[in-house]
## 1
Amino acid sequence: MQRARAGDPRAVARLITLVESGDPALPQIAAALGSDAVKAVVIGITGSPGVGKSTTTNELVRAFRKIGRRVGVLAVDPSSPFTGGAILGDRVRMQDHAIDPGVYIRSMSSRGHLGGLAAATPAAVRVLAGAGCDVVLVETVGVGQAEVEIASLADTTLVLLAPGMGDAIQAVKAGILEIADIFVVNKADRDGADATYRDIQGMIALGGGISGTAQETGDNGGRLPGDWRPKVLKASAAKAEGIDAIVEALEEHRAWLERTGELTRRRRQRAAAEIEALALGELRAKFAELPGEGLQALAAEVADGRLDPYAASTRLLDGIL
Amino acid sequence: MQRARAGDPRAVARLITLVESGDPALPQIAAALGSDAVKAVVIGITGSPGVGKSTTTNELVRAFRKIGRRVGVLAVDPSSPFTGGAILGDRVRMQDHAIDPGVYIRSMSSRGHLGGLAAATPAAVRVLAGAGCDVVLVETVGVGQAEVEIASLADTTLVLLAPGMGDAIQAVKAGILEIADIFVVNKADRDGADATYRDIQGMIALGGGISGTAQETGDNGGRLPGDWRPKVLKASAAKAEGIDAIVEALEEHRAWLERTGELTRRRRQRAAAEIEALALGELRAKFAELPGEGLQALAAEVADGRLDPYAASTRLLDGIL
């Protein structure tokens, strides 16, 4: 633990493995990390497969290193080079950072963890923050509820799109529009980039994706003066173009978060969700352990029509309370 | 309650409205329904918008009426005629059944209910079964986790596809393949129907979508002798073609469920999930009510780094246990 907090990469790796496997020592680890565990800026990077998430992440790591930040990367993307799904080129490029002591890169799998990645990821973010990372980039594939949940653990969420993939529509479907603080149309030199850019601008103008402490209908498309209107940027991460503008937008969003108190609000909301999930997980384990009148016995009675579900729930709670 | 159990449509309607709004009297209602609440055959009907779910549901209602069954329909589909999204033709056709006392049709919305439709739908199914419906058809749009959950409350799940909509691939993505017992390629007279049919057959042959009490890799694509291999049928519901074959497949699946004990297993699993969801909902409400050391206060401490989430979870549980 001491060595992890001093930034020893092997010690950090071991701790994240414990997090992934849902080790019984997690409460002690969490306690030992102390207040450093919340100090990192957490940035979520999401988007459909093929939009260039790992290339963009790679360039962002480079940009943050240039300004002296220590960077952690958690890749929870099955198509990511970190987890083995991508082409060799990406893999090799990422290895540039692998020998940089100021960069910690880690793929996450959900093996063994009770709550899956949605539970393991915030714990891993705390480990990286505790090990001295100033910035933690969490890269996820932007499809499905689980990924939206993981993205929601970030202070700032960056959604990548690529031209001609129908991504703008997909983004709405998957609920990603609501979680995006910054959109990046990557591969901006390709045909259709302008159309994608306009589509997403149009959707934002229609009032989607506005975050703020309150939402009202007004003259400016539902925004209040203190609201954040999602930024839309263009980039070509493979050519390292447009990266500085992304970093600038990230810092602008950070300043907004702090100025408006939204950072505190988001972090408290996340903390509440995490605490509740841990507590409910504990209770679920207790349900399974109840002797006699356990969940399975009650379920059999309900399935047979001998008991109704509400009465069964009451009996279950009586068993643990 | 007496009148609902006797099948009075207005009394049934009132009960389902109470279910939708999460009325405090739900436990008493559930208790009063007694063992009739589990007697109906529950069939889930799902698929993307535009595949012909309501037309197919309509024809299935007709077919079940012809063989003397009392039928309940719960439409939890925003694009369904019952909830206002479809064309007038469908709406009028469904009204044929509206004057049949052996058919009870109801749309479901999630207004007010704590657990949303996923919580309200099983309760509404019990009301319909308690009111004497032999068959309850639950129609949902097959996109998103919530809909998959709702479909999973059925004994048999029927997934509708239509030619040329890329549905086969979508089905895999959305996790629908895993829940389908019967596939119906609707609009089978259209171009591409054969290709869709072959696609879905191919995916089943690759070992997806096999349900059974155990799954092993074997010579027959992962199936064991007692396993159910999803049926794939073609139909043109708008022309009332292929409906008898669907009813036959539904009864065949029913016989399989009963013969193998899978019906009991599925219903117990569903009952366990429902009981647990009710119990966790109660506990979540208790968390919110805790004085002083309540969830919000603990979340603020965790967000500030003064407390770790595990310690906060323990304190939260100490508050209610």
## 2
Amino acid sequence: MSSAAEAPGPARVEVLAVVGVGLIGGSFAAALRAAGKVGRVLGVGRHAHTLRQARRLGLIDEAVDLRQAAASADLIMLATPVGAMGRILSELKPHLRAETLLTDVGSTKADVARTACAVLGEGAAQFVPGHPIAGAERTGPEAADAALYRGRNVVLTPLAENSLDARLRLTGLWESCGARVLTMEPEAHDVVLASVSHVPHFLASVYMEQVAAARDSDVRMSLAGTGFRDFTRIAAGSAEMWRDIFLANRSAVLSELAEIRQALAQAEQALEREDGQSLYDWLERAALARRLWGSRSGLS
Amino acid sequence: MSSAAEAPGPARVEVLAVVGVGLIGGSFAAALRAAGKVGRVLGVGRHAHTLRQARRLGLIDEAVDLRQAAASADLIMLATPVGAMGRILSELKPHLRAETLLTDVGSTKADVARTACAVLGEGAAQFVPGHPIAGAERTGPEAADAALYRGRNVVLTPLAENSLDARLRLTGLWESCGARVLTMEPEAHDVVLASVSHVPHFLASVYMEQVAAARDSDVRMSLAGTGFRDFTRIAAGSAEMWRDIFLANRSAVLSELAEIRQALAQAEQALEREDGQSLYDWLERAALARRLWGSRSGLS
């Protein structure tokens, strides 16, 4: 009897299939393996070399196609850009076993819920949507890390069709990875994430492209320091992934951007009229809020 | 004969006075000391406890007032918020010796040049304005670090009145701290810094305050991750310092913000009309530019 089989907590997943073995999917597999909560790991992906790398790194045991994954996995983790979800679920559906649990890690949840219900029909009961709030700057299987989810939040946005058992099973597995699991309505999740994740990415990318497009961008970039580095770091992320996120969460992102635009206009007006007191008050509110968040979040 | 006295490069500064012994001023003193380029370090500041701390940390040898600093220092480094420069120069002026070299580390340079000429008159020949491009998130003497300037850019914006000797002397001292020294016109410096430093701070603070002011800010901040952390890090900076920077560099900052506002509107319109190709192209340009900068800058 192996020690893995004796590990406390949720039952071990005999066969896990990860669709998209990059940072997020690969780290989930690695974390479950480290916790002794998984038997065999199958990897599905678009690029053969990525799968070979994932196998070499020990993240997966075997590369398979969606059909094989559907036929043999007890848990299927979809870790692909959200725009690909519909196509993948359609391909999985005909081969899916009734006892298989599905989940995802997409950064938007209302569209994933809609897609799952539309494509899977009654089978949506097997699909518990989720979103781990964890680093996305690095990409690819070589960035995978069994410790990525330790102390991090994972939001589940269960469908009405999900059984309590399915929800608890997934919660337990994420907790085995060291994560803290929260449950939210998909729409509420999307509004919050528009604010704290999607809008920062939007602004950082707008800003980065404006600097890069400037006639004197070379001298600008040569004098950019650590503030620039931090402010623009997220703009280096995958264009494909972020395009999908913005489109999937379009209305919440646009609505947050409208708020930002208004706040920006007010701050600009204070600067235009050289209103030092208003500028100071605004900067001080921002600084205090950021310092408080830094001390509470454990991230800074 | 001490090894410090034998160190190659610029002549050692017998008495250095640092006005404002925080991260930037304290690191300059520490770096010169580590390079064997300074004898005695005097510290001037508004807060007795900061000066006591600077002394305990070995950054300064003695706390003095501006008058004493002017009377005995060979080099006076002004490391205070740019808004305080006029007052400090006025207080120094009556006691300044003709052979004393002055410099500053302010983030804006056209206003510093104007202030120095207006206050010092002919004495402005002794003042060589400068700006080290180095981290400003941490503050206070305990953040000072002799290695802060190693490999970093320092921009000097000499006045027409400065002697070549004064410029070379200051260049040599910054090089002793490990920095690379560039020379620019003050106005050109301010336009570039508006773009790569002041505007990011403005945007990060507008954004941070908008999130903090939201009705549901608690849940927002509890789901904020590493992207949020990086994007907002600069917003924690000193409100006083940044108010002064924005006011001092008002027209360049407003002009850059107008450009950003236009780029933002275009990106928003692409999202509104669900134009995935435009969104992708824009995000990809931003991502490639950021990755290129990261690999070239040595900062990321």
## 3
Amino acid sequence: MKNAILASTSTLHGQQYLSYLLPEIAKLFKGCSEIIFIPFARPGGITHEEYTSLAKKALQSISINVKGLHEFEDKEQALKEAQGLFTGGGNTFLLVDKLHRNNLMMPLREQILKGTPYLGSSAGTNIGGLTMQTTNDMPIIYPPSFKTLGIVPFNINPHYLDPDLHSKHKGETRETRIKEFHTLNTQPVVGLREGSWLEIKDNDITLRGTLSARIFTVGKEPIELASNTKLTSII
Amino acid sequence: MKNAILASTSTLHGQQYLSYLLPEIAKLFKGCSEIIFIPFARPGGITHEEYTSLAKKALQSISINVKGLHEFEDKEQALKEAQGLFTGGGNTFLLVDKLHRNNLMMPLREQILKGTPYLGSSAGTNIGGLTMQTTNDMPIIYPPSFKTLGIVPFNINPHYLDPDLHSKHKGETRETRIKEFHTLNTQPVVGLREGSWLEIKDNDITLRGTLSARIFTVGKEPIELASNTKLTSII
């Protein structure tokens, strides 16, 4: 009963917030007059109110009202009653900390498994995986656990970035980091490039957008998965 | 009684491991015939043995023998008896996890405060700060705490990278990440560019290398600190 979009990024270069994804969002939230936005990742430290306004403005054009989860006294109940759910990007450590400390991770998971349409972007996509351990973010807060929603049976690396072959910088490439993850963890990792998203319908997971995704599996060479292909190889 | 070098990176583009820093390392470890290498950060998942061999080979040219901390049954005692200490780079989460789980973080700190010469590079430099929370690494393991050595009264961001003004990538810049850190944490952050290092002599901390460092302080615009300048403004 799952119905979700997990997008690598909310915004493409030179575009407005969510604009490239609006046709898909309209389909995902078809029939919803209002959805709940989870603003806890607070990019750049903006307030929950400011961040919710941004989402509200973006979804106005497809006639969907947005309320922030922070506005509700009983947040678990709010999740249960939501017509649709959207978790925005920002800092994944902060998002995961806030969800765990408010005991909202499992209730959120349950609603998604029951079929409430879910949209994630960036950090909101990262938490769709088994753990947040393939995030690119800085550990600005110490969360009670790195476990996340697990609505897909692998980990996700949003904003996946190919190595810059001309770079003289000695910091690790994204691929090196994911390989380090695989020295200690066994789940596959999907490197989602900006402009790509995973479309989840019940048990089908399909890569959408124009780009391929890079799939990392323990003990194997990474492979490129073409757009509009199901992720059957790793699920 | 502190005597330490905290280097942004072990290796510069096109050079051998540690080669740019060897003259400084020779001065730091003057009088030491053997030092202990802490290989726990295991870059790319290499073994403790492989990583220690790399350090051993690099320090051979300045006639210093290297033993890996993993070789010792009583690691705390080994730290106490060491003539010099060197923590290599790799994954900071892994390094911090291993140090805390083996109850070695505080003993290591004590030895450095007592004056045992200490060299850190990358992750080994990051742990010189108050917490590891300005690392660039992926959280591939969940450490018991983010607290680190605190031999300098601020946090360090190694491999500091200036924003690429031509990039179309929407992942956060390093500066944005550090500003997010400052929405929740108050300690200053020193962004150390590759090729820079902090020289610590007792209570003096001096920026060395050819580049400036970027200093982030809560509520202020970041400033550039020139090379060969003391970090008096933030300590």
## 4
Amino acid sequence: MKQSQMFIPTMKETPADAESASHQLLLRGGFIRQNASGVYSYLPLGYKIIKKIETIIREEMDRAGAQELLMPAMQPAELWHETGRWDVYGPELMRLKDRHGRYFALGATGEELITSLVRDFLNSYKKLPMNLYQIQTKYRDEKRPRFGLLRGREFIMKDAYSFHDSAESLDKTYWAMYTAYCRIFERCGLKFRAVLADSGAIGGKDTHEFQALAEIGEDTIAYSDQSNYAANLEMAAVLDTDASEKEATQPLEKVAGKQEANEQEIIAQAFKTRTETVVVFIKASDEMNDVKLKNVMATDLLEPIPADFNLMKTDSNVRVFADNGVKHLSQSVLYNKFEDVTYLHLDPERDLNIVAYDDFRFIKEGDPSPDGKGTIRFAKGIEIGQVFKLGTKYSEAMNATYLDAEGKAKPLIMGCYGIGVSRTLSAICEQYHDEGGMIWPKSLAPFTLHLITVNPKNEDQYKLSEQLYQQFVDLGYDVLWDDRKERPGVKFADSELIGCPVQVIVGKKASENIVEIATRKDKARNETQAVSLPETVDQLLKTLD
Amino acid sequence: MKQSQMFIPTMKETPADAESASHQLLLRGGFIRQNASGVYSYLPLGYKIIKKIETIIREEMDRAGAQELLMPAMQPAELWHETGRWDVYGPELMRLKDRHGRYFALGATGEELITSLVRDFLNSYKKLPMNLYQIQTKYRDEKRPRFGLLRGREFIMKDAYSFHDSAESLDKTYWAMYTAYCRIFERCGLKFRAVLADSGAIGGKDTHEFQALAEIGEDTIAYSDQSNYAANLEMAAVLDTDASEKEATQPLEKVAGKQEANEQEIIAQAFKTRTETVVVFIKASDEMNDVKLKNVMATDLLEPIPADFNLMKTDSNVRVFADNGVKHLSQSVLYNKFEDVTYLHLDPERDLNIVAYDDFRFIKEGDPSPDGKGTIRFAKGIEIGQVFKLGTKYSEAMNATYLDAEGKAKPLIMGCYGIGVSRTLSAICEQYHDEGGMIWPKSLAPFTLHLITVNPKNEDQYKLSEQLYQQFVDLGYDVLWDDRKERPGVKFADSELIGCPVQVIVGKKASENIVEIATRKDKARNETQAVSLPETVDQLLKTLD
């Protein structure tokens, strides 16, 4: 494609309101334009990349046995009433009223719609399992859209939904999707981790998030430096590895007021659930992780409350837990606010009414990895995908049942699997750029080759360029030819912003049939004979991601 | 793909509310499902066809030099205020309010948005022309959605917008798009006509609609039986071919009341524009065409009024026109209601104050074709595409200007070009079906081959089918294998509904390696040896559309 005829509105200056590298460079390189807060157009260059990502997704989803369909963005409110989400979803769900006064949601997600589509057809175990996906525009009215495509209000998503007659069947598809996602993100060139995530108290059990590693990411990932282990910070299990013998026990000592001591301090955190009060003792140097307590107690509500009661003589309707880290202590110090007294030489096992020990703290960098291999490190991640065992939440609410082999009606067991397509583009930008602009991986580059004619008014340069352009197009390369009558500085700056993997520069030595070749990554230019260019480009591409 | 694992919810009965063949068969064949009035899901089979249509569109648009982008469906109301269309568009424009109370239109069309995108960049004649397109979901809140995908509220459209610095440049792109559209619809296998259409009084000049021929169509097309001439009924010019000598003139005769006479009757139709009153005389046997009068008078408002004034002595502020058909009359009869008098032997030229003759009537079947070749016939059409010279309507309203070679700011000259993708699918259905279901053209069939195992529990049948399935997949065919444990009647009925071009039936003679082959179109089955099947299928496909 001739650059003079293409719509690539590059920008010299960094837009003031673009905070992340991906947002800045996608705007500056003419890949996207903002139409409203959180609402973007994909310009020709950007949309070429989106389509390449979509093709990879389609190929891997089809390979994994999923079938593509396309559902509407307009979803009747009645369906969302069936699951109660019309009221629960809040202002993030975009809503509209048609000319007859009927309400619709603009799809933020598709569980209700897909369940309504299949519920009459998937009426027998013989028709299961079934896995359906779509690549579609989604809507979410984010309160504070930011980072460009990373948190937009209209965005492209791949969402898939599977239907099963057993937990084993769901498990099989779940891991098939997990594998497909790994392949998709690998083919996109992304550095990512599949991390254990929290499924919430309601809904299914297993869930993994796919996190692209990037400083700008809003999630912290705990990963092993020696294995594939990775988990969301809140989900990473802490090993109960302390096998040390307890020290000799001293008698409990009671001192007025809050006192410093040379012993391990423990603290108490109190919570209320819907039905009871609980206290958790934990080392003061550790951080309490509510999610773990929620999961242990199987509750969706946990409200922190002040621990303003006697920690030493908790009454019988307060359950007392302690973190595993407290188990082996015998010389600890605890301030009991209720009495305004500090206890020294406290042995939790001896002195507190602990009913059970468990893992209640956040993992820390340097902790051993829960899989026993290596040490935990932290990284920031951008969530680009998620696989999720939904169970029967939606099928029960919407009465989507199948008949099993005995002719008994049972709710369909469901899984759902999402990929943020526009987010994936942002994540790739965060990982593949330098100060000058984008450095696209080969698999996604809008053009493989950027042919730059330094001075197209010079006949030698123009003719050689034209000939090379045609030659590479005939060889099947996607070539962007900068034939514009612009200053060389403008051309080279634009070429950096656009970020094609290989640049071929036709300049002064065109009359000698000599051109320069460089990769976008290291920028070092080498002279080469025009005749040997196809071979040189081919060789060079093999060295690139 | 194994049919047992595919989501193809066929229906035995014709849905009561589906009026057209395309609507009925798309539902019955499991291609689409309705989610709300005018809102549909494309199920896996239907979406496969949509994607094939989209691929053809992309290839031809790219070949014609257009660039693909993707704009959002959410369009800020401010843009629609700039052109005034927020108020003009009426209830067909879907609107929504975000959580901050800002209004958006859900794109029914994209002129405002694209103009806002390019107006800063296309600032010089050097960057012109530019042609940008997208394939996108569009929204139109139709009062009465009907015929399934034919008049939906959420639908897929290809819309393109071109920008120019001269009428000649626009003309060139206009005809390039015209040619691309012909290629697209030909590749889709459609019988269609590109017809001259009315551009309306406001906006551009040239416009053609692409009409797929179908009885269900809402538009009447006038076409020549001997040339490519075709026009919307309202636009078809009537040739002024009457070269007959006037008959000898008799004196005008005046008779009281309304009288019958053996002469050609003429009538008068009166209209008011914003500024004047006009009368048009026309043969009583012809039908007045307001659109032609509007265009002759260059007005967008024309209100029919009673002709309750003296037709013989029209006062000077009433302009009097006559249709060409009146020009050669000398023996006509006219009833003047104002006087309650019938005039006989009236010679319009002599007796009426006619200032000009022109073409003011609708063309009729049997009229000579306006291009001088053949005779006019009528047909019904479904509008599947339109090319349109917009001129400067939007660029002027939105201040989208470029600098010409002299450095003078001028409004961009625009064209726009639409294809209804989901409508095209419906039009194909209308043209390619029989009572049993769809008969897809090769270029769009969801699968080329339908392999039907009559009894999959029979080992010979299953093994031979499995072997043939693999063989054809390896040969690059798209094969649907009906491996379901259903009754043969169900299988054959479904196969008719689904409509793959070629069917291979593996039945009782599987043990002898003999199968049956048939085309969906003529259904006649022929036995063939399984070993020669690839060759037979190949031959058969060559005979099909």
